[in-house]
Every structure is written in structure tokens, then in C-alpha cells.
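Can anyone check this?
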Amino acid sequence: MNKKIIALAVGSAIGAFGASAAFAQSNVTLSGSLNFNYGMFDNGGAGFGAGTNNSVNLAKTKYDGLNNQESQWAIAGEEKLDGGMTAFFLCSTTMDITGGVAANMCARNSYIGLKGGFGSINVGNYDTPAKRMTALYDPFPISAAMGQGAQMWNATASNTVNGGTPASFSRRQANLVTYDMPTMSGLDASFAFTAANEASAMTSATTVTKPRMWSAMVNYTNGPLGLGLGYESHHNYNPAAAANYLGGDDTMLELAAGYQVSSALRLSGIWNSIKYDKVGAGSGDMSVKTWGLYADWNFSGPYRLRAGYSVQQSTSGSYNGVTTTANTQIGSWTGNAGAGNTGAQKIHVEGVQALSKRTEFGLTYAQIANDRFSNITIGTGGANPNFGEKSTFLGMLIRHKF
């Protein structure tokens, strides 16, 4: 159906519920995507007991699953204002045909803002600049079996408040204020910070009362070459004692590069250095480096191959969460005072056929191999394997955009 006709219908429907005449004059569009995969998850064998070097007789988990992979519909609009400015908004909502839990309207990336010669500023529930920079270089969605949220960024956080899912550095962040500068000679930059809304709900007895996040990115494009730099700081999150915000600054430095080798082939890579401060009893620290390499190859007509290899290196730092009976993890990652064997390696491949400009169908395979003291899941839809085990996914996907 023609998008303009749909947009007119949406505008008319909103008007019927009391929208102002000014809204009906806005340029409103409706768009979206349906992304689903179906296949077999295999979460490995017995593995090891938590924090021990002895294998244990735990059941092997193998099952099939149908998973939603960031499907959504979105209403967007803008209106020209005096002085060369434009008002704009976005309302994105989850669309799940698997019968998943209903989400609130505008629960995905959603904001309202103003733009002009100065760039743009918006407020809302939105991906951080560091996360948006990542999407320029990673050809895979960040969730589902092909995503690397748990391995590369220590989980994905959706619609999270300050300190919510405190270990994650891949965030759709509530209460976010974002500034995007205008593009200048191939250079783009963005800066964002959170409003400290949670502070008002904390008592005076709380050690620290103002959790806050800052995130920034700079991206440069020159012909076939792309270079990106991202930085994010979480102040007073403390992932080992998040409810109390005991202090500390957790940080991520992110580098990315991409090169369009030909009209059919693009190569790219991402490197992260993430550090957690004052974890455990408040005196420990933990650092992790992760990286990924990717290829997106349109090798023949409608046929495309996407491939990736990503690594989470072993953790370092003074934090030691491994005891004789249990692993105390920071998010998805295990700290053992730098003793090693706490990393994971993942390969993921998908071959697709474009059935039209908007629809593609394909086959997918992913495998994550955990070190002895690691049990990272293969992705959304998969369960955590036993420590030291591999997880695999073999299936098919279908995507449709409108």
C-alpha cells in the first residue's frame, strides 16, 4: 500500500481522536520492518560446575525456536517552522507476530526535537550515539542469534533508565537528550546525556544519588572509507551493586572502520575497550576488550552473504568473582583477577536472496565457543549454556520492510 495513503489514514485517525489541525499539516509517514528467524538451538553438553574445574552431568539443551529480531512499525513526521527550523518526531513500536508480550506504543526509538542550521536536538527514548555508530559498521542486528550484544557489549539494554541493566554498553536509553551536529565534509558527530530522574526517588541515606550517562561519537566518511570513534561513561552505576549506586565511573572506548572494496563487497571492523570501576565490594575493577570483523558481499544478482567473527577476550583487573562454588559475574562476563579463560569467540553467517527491494529470505548459522569460565548465550532466543560449552544456531530468516 502506498505510504502516503497510509500516512493520510494515520493522520486522519489521530485527528479523529482530537489531534490539532496543525498536526494534520505535518509531513507524516508510516514505515516498519518484520524480521524473524526460525531454527534449532543447541546449547552444548555437560560443561563444568560453576567455579570448579570438574565436569558435571548437566542436561544438554536442544530445541527449536521462532524469534522476533527487532521487528517494528514507526510513525515519523516533521513540520517546517519560522526561522529555518523544523520540528520532528519519531514513535517506534514493537511488532511481534509470534504472540510475544505486548509493548507500549513508542517503546522503541522514539523522540521529539528541533533541527536547523545548528544541527538537531531531541529528547526521548533513543539509542545512544555510541550504539548508533556501531550500527554503521556491523551488518547484523544486535539481538537474536546473529547478534553479539552479550559478547561484544555485555548485554543489550532496551528502554532502560539510568543504571538499569548497569553493565550493558549497548543501550536504548530513556530520559536521553541528544545533539547531532550537521554533517561537514563527511564528518558527523553526536553527543547525549541522561536526565538524572532516579535521583528524586532516592533517600538521603543513599551513598550516591545522581546516576548519569554520557555518550558521544564521531564518524568520518570519505568515499569508500569510513572511520568511527565512540565513547560512553556511566557515572555511579556500579554493576555489582546497582541498586545503591555506590560510586565509580564505568567507561567504553570504541573504534570502528569500514571499506567499500567494490560495489558488491564491504569489509568492516569494531574494537571496544570497556572498564568497570569500584565493582564487587567497591574496591575492585574489571576491564574487557572485544572486537569483531565483518563482510557484506553481494556476490551474484539477488544473492548476498554476510559473515562475522567476534571475540571477547579474557577479563583483566583486580575483581575476582570466581569462588569454589559459584561465579559472580558482571553482566555476562566473569572476572577472576586476570587468571584467564573468561572469554568467548563467535562466528555467524547468513546467506540471503533478495526476493524484492523490500523482502529477503535466507539461511543462517551461528556458533559461540565459551572459555572455561564463560557461559555467554549465543543471542536472544538462546539459553545460557553450561560453563565452557559451545552453543549453535542453524535456521532460516525472513525480512520485510515497508
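Reply from J.R.: I decoded it. The chain is about 5% helix and 50% strand.
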